[in-house]
């Protein structure tokens, strides 16, 4: 093995932890951190596919629902954007202050999960962390609330807590488990808390994956050539590759753009001209 | 002078050029590149204030108009977002392929200026460059097109080209100059091509400037303390400052957010746990 | 038979034609024309379910695509709104001038189908008429264009014309037929041109149908009681029923609203007080 | 006087009350109820101009603010739509159940004013009624809330109640009066509670008024010719006039639309063909 490429936010967090601990054995390219990955796949791919998964599973209308999105990273931005686009009233929960202000200025309600838990109709976790929704939150949710995860593993929605609070559980429709709580309220877990767009849908649209896969292919070519100079590190996709993928995509879309003239290039680089 | 802080995209481009040329005499903090600056001031500040300026000047309705936004940086994103929010049909022109794909996926038409020039009702340049709209574009514009700049100086919309093509010019309303071309078409230049939100409006809302000014104040405190270790370079605002400004902003908005538990922090940093 | 109730726009057009021709044998209530039907079922139901059907069938991303919506009635408004919400660039075609101006002011491009045919990626007919997309349009479409109908029968997209222009056809995925034209271009017909939300999806969400079915039930109760006085006519749902359904819906959603005070009622009804 | 034409919702309510009371002396045409009026002027005109007025007066950012819109008629729909388009979190209050469900499905929070009063940053009344915001609401508002009216007279926001609760008042900026309540909270009344788009802005954009004025002119021509047959009643604008204004508008916008073929017309009118 000369090196590899990793395309998830969560995977890169882990790889960087390995690098810090000296546990990384070969260079890894952080494909997720390329513009042509996270700006597109995470936002437009996750955003659309999460609702494809939820809608075909539940056959409920999104318009008018209060959708709670946990995490306002690129995936969360995509999910919140599409929830709004489908007519939902969107609430965002965050642990990062900068992202929280961003969600706020994007017109979403921002509050701690303990508040959001009381008003949400559909909950979607997109954090890459665990226990984002847990016992204390189930305790205050409305009867009929839907729980879905689009972040990473099935630990974002804490299932042991949910089971502990429940007196019974049954599958009411494919990929929908009903948990009946002691006080009679019913909470519905989609796709066992696994990634709802994968487990209950078709995953990201093929088209949006084309950019990611182009990056992957070119990142492997790059790591194959440069693995010695890179060393046992997690490195970014070189900007030239990123830019090349975008150009190819535009071409495939039939969209042309402008080019800087020499005068304009010079102008951007100069500091003497006003 | 121990150092300074610069808050515009264009200014930082110039400072970096000076740094490259060895012309920088003291450390400069790139306030514009702080999250709490460009994510907010550039997008929500410019986005809203540009239309405040245009609308009060023209008293035209934006809904239904084809608005051409040149440049899809953070300011351009804000202008395009608000144009859409006001009911416009938005076209984006770009020279950067990645941004162009982003605009495309955001649902905007993407094309070269020469194509956009033929269909636009309102043109807004937000590039930081010169000659973005020039002779060849005026030649194909519709009668009545409006030209506005929200990027930097009055060089984005090329005025000498416009004058050269015109047989007469007159001020038809405060901040609106009508250029009558040889073939009878009329093009309207707002605020002499200067920043339309400043020259024809009140500039950014005070509220959105609060974050920028907080960053400025804290950047100056930082450069005062660290100027020796920084040297004659352009440096970023330390993340801690960025994060602190966001926390203060949230507090002032009365919005609370979640905090990571120790378990969650550990989980994010570990690579051994599943 | 004492009477009946009809819930589609197209059905009511037919019933009114029957009434005009003296062919109607008993009273019919035009449930489609009740506010609680067309404002909701047609817009939010059709809007969402059309894309549920298309997305699960094609697994393509909607963001960035040019979606051509034919017909800007309540169904078409819903489809256009959701297309925009999913990030599409939306074009509307119409035969009614008032609706066309409305689409225009809503920020959509408005043009004849012959122009739209050249630029559309996805075509969705929602007109209740026939031959909306036909030979002359296929002749200019882009390779790969998708054709879907969400209006009424499988006559909105003219299939005989499509077959006549094609040299071969094959099913490339469930509910997607590829028509290869003589010049090599491929057009894809979804669900055989039948209602794409029903034939390739689950139809309208159950929730949105609740209002329609409540209207149906109460319309039948009404026609049962009033059939003699109504006669052989197509009549509207009485406003009281409409309003009652809305109140019940709000209650079920847990949403309270204000009530007019006696002073306010008096104020609205008076013309002497200023 | 042979007749007249009235273009406001509120005016027509009054005229109909006069008609009921036998106080109407000549025929009046309800221009407001023409499609080309309320679909456009009320929505796009009021929607945009209200924020033009508020923004130039306050110089505050709308993004992130909780905007409470009272009344979800055509004007209210326009104001809510633009508030959302400017990045606000929108709350709607209503007295009509059907409109309330509509606002709910459009993704807005719906609640009684007494609840909305606690969370709103900007209040905009668009009801045509009086005392929409009154003492009990001021009692629970947040410090700094802004009060604006875009409905009809300066009675929607109850000023005597506001004065009674205040210990002092002063003009803090042109068209902004600060009322200091006994507990120290400050409420800001814009433009003395008069129509904020007229009193603190330029009113509706000229362009959007063109349709309304065309209707007015043609309604007067109509009433001049038909006043005898109409009698002392409030009548609608004939559909032909409405449609003609829309066609002229489309033409002036350079937008072409499709025409029904004879086959299509026949198809729409027939009930025997499938």
Order of helices and strands of chain A: EHEHEHEHEHEHEHEEEHHEHH
Mean pLDDT of chain A: 95
Helix content of chain A: 40-55%
What is the strand arrangement across the widest sheet of chain A? 5-4-3-6-7-10-9-8
How would you describe the oligomerization state of the chains in this entry?
Answer: homotetramer
- In whole angstroms, the N-to-C terminal distance of chain A is 53 Å
Structural class of chain A: alpha/beta
- Rg of chain A to the nearest angstrom? 21 Å
Largest sheet, strands/sense/barrel of chain A:
8 strands, mixed
Dominant shape of chain A = globular
| Overall number of strands of chain A | 11
Low-confidence stretches of chain A are none
**Which percent range describes the beta-strand content of chain A?**
15-25%
Pair of chains with the largest interface and how many residues each contributes = A-B, 58 and 57 residues
Task: Describe this structure as you would to a colleague.
With 274 residues, the first copy, chain A, is of the alpha/beta class. Chain A is 46% helix and 18% strand. Chain A contains eleven helices and eleven strands. Chain A has helices at residues 9-20, 35-58, 74-85, 97-105, 113-119, 135-138, 159-165, 196-199, 206-230, 239-253, 262-269, and strands spanning 4-6, 28-30, 66-70, 89-93, 109-110, 122-125, 146-149, 166-173, 176-181, 186-190, 234-236. In chain A, the strands form two sheets. Chain A has an eight-stranded mixed beta sheet with strand order 5-4-3-6-7-10-9-8, sandwiched between helices. A three-stranded parallel beta sheet of chain A has the order 1-2-11. In chain A, helix 4 (97-105) links the parallel strand 4 and strand 5 (109-110). The radius of gyration of chain A is 21 Å and the shape is globular. At the A-B interface, helix 1, helix 2, helix 4, helix 10 and helix 11 of A face helix 1, helix 2, helix 4, helix 10 and helix 11 of B.
